[in-house]
């Protein structure tokens, strides 16, 4: 007989979850202060998986001191096929042609699957002599203009009033050569000591969030907000992402909500991208099937990186293609932007030591927070560990029908 189950979880309070359908706290078995995977029995692991796949984001508090090598092992609890390769590649992105290089993320030498992100300069950390990480949000009037990602940045007065915005809603994956991991794990080492900030929504409401909060919305919730016609369209559609997607949008900026890109002709022409081939270009269903959630389709689309939509009519077999990028963005944005309201967004308020596991294939997430301006202040620096490992299994389509491509990459 196995030991009595002792890992438990509780949903975050309704006042925080609101309509997001996101958020639970995992409580480790009594006597276990730092997560010790070897001490969890099969029931514990099953409860842990259920907590994550039902609630999309789970938090274990007070994990300061956890060994970085635990994070990749933990990721495999949710995806046995997770490879030991960070989804951004085996080295941090340093190619200046790639928009992701601006984060200047480092890697922990003893756990190369774990990246270091945040804001500020650090010395002699985890065997790294000098490390500088950059927090990319609005930085109006400062000398980091290249990090601006919004077409219309916040005004200096709005920043002074404490406003911030989601930087770019995304899943952790390059959409090229590697498949998205099932989960991403974040662990907070340093939290900036700054007052709350706030996000303004199109309906006029405002949401107060912790400075540097990580914001999430659920793909399952997004699906439920679609009209029946849009749901049918989503269930029958495959999304092809842009070749070398982040290089393709390198010169582009996003809408104020961080969900899409206004098409202004600044995309890098596909003939001018670094070497690429279609068989490495990500192609995923618009509505994903999630483990432990057989009845809920997840609308999982990265609105900034989309390139082409292919829709199969399951009755007639007819195929419709939208390959005008502006139109593709318009269609996706029309569907996805319905979720952009205060009550649908969970913004994780970081506490030092938090271990946050999120279902990368079940949510979209975004950085928020105006904290880069304070990077010189010792108590306003920020450091997080981030573990996101490419999966070997492509995302599954919620509806399977003939013609759906299940490789995770574009057909050649
Ligand atoms: Fe991310």
UniProtKB/TrEMBL annotation:
Alphabetic keyword roster = Dioxygenase, Iron, Metal-binding, Oxidoreductase
Highest taxon above the source species: Eukaryota
The coenzyme or cofactor needed here is: Fe(2+)
Q: Keyword Secreted on this protein?
A: no
MF GO annotations: dioxygenase activity; metal ion binding
InterPro entries, alphabetically? TauD-like_sf, TauD/TfdA-like, TfdA_dioxygenase
Domain TauD/TfdA-like: start-end pairs: 18-388
User: What is stated as this protein's family in its record?
Assistant: Belongs to the TfdA dioxygenase family.
PANTHER family per UniProt? ALPHA-KETOGLUTARATE-DEPENDENT XANTHINE DIOXYGENASE XAN1, DIOXYGENASE RV0097-RELATED
Question: What is the protein name for this chain?
Answer: Taurine catabolism dioxygenase TauD/TfdA
Q: Which organism is it from?
A: Penicillium angulare
Give the organism's phylogenetic lineage: Eukaryota, Fungi, Dikarya, Ascomycota, Pezizomycotina
């Amino acid at each position: 007989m196995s030991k009595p189950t002792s890992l438990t979880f509780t949903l975050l309070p309704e006042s925080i979850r609101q309509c997001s359908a996101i958020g639970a706290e995992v409580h480790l078995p009594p006597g276990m202060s730092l997560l010790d995977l070897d001490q969890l029995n099969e029931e514990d692991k099953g409860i842990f998986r259920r907590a994550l796949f039902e609630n999309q984001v789970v938090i274990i508090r007070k994990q300061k001191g956890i060994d970085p090598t635990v994070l990749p092992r933990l990721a495999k609890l949710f995806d046995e096929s997770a490879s030991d390769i960070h989804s951004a590649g085996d080295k941090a992105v340093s190619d200046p042609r790639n928009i992701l290089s601006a984060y200047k993320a480092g890697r922990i030498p003893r756990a190369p699957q774990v990246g270091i992100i945040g804001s500020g300069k650090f010395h002699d950390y985890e065997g790294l002599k000098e490390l500088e990480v950059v927090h990319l949000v609005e930085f109006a009037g400062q000398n980091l203009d290249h990090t601006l990602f919004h077409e219309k940045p916040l005004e200096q007065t709005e920043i002074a009033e404490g406003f911030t915005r989601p930087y770019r809603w995304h899943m952790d994956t390059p959409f090229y050569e590697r498949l998205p991991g099932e989960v991403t794990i974040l662990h907070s080492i340093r939290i900036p000591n700054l007052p709350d900030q706030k996000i303004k929504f199109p309906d006029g409401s405002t949401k107060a969030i912790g400075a540097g909060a990580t914001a999430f919305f659920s793909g399952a919730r997004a699906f439920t907000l679609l009209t029946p016609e849009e749901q049918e369209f989503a269930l029958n559609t495959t999304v092809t992402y842009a070749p070398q997607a982040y290089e393709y949008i390198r010169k582009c900026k996003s809408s104020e909500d961080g969900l899409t890109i206004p098409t202004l002709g600044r995309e890098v022409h596909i003939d001018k991208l670094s070497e690429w081939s279609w068989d490495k270009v990500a192609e995923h269903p618009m509505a994903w099937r999630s483990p432990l959630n057989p009845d809920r389709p997840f609308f999982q689309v990265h609105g900034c990186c989309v390139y082409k939509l292919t829709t199969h009519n399951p009755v007639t077999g007819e195929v419709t293609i939208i390959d005008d990028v502006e139109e593709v963005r318009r269609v996706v944005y029309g569907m996805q932007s319905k979720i952009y309201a205060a009550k649908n967004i969970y913004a994780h308020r970081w506490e030092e030591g938090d271990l946050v596991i999120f279902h990368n294939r079940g949510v979209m997430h975004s950085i928020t927070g105006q904290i880069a301006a304070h990077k010189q202040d010792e108590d306003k620096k920020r450091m997080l560990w981030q573990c996101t490992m490419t999966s070997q299994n492509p995302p599954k389509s919620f509806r399977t029908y003939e013609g759906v491509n299940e490789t995770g990459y574009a057909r050649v």
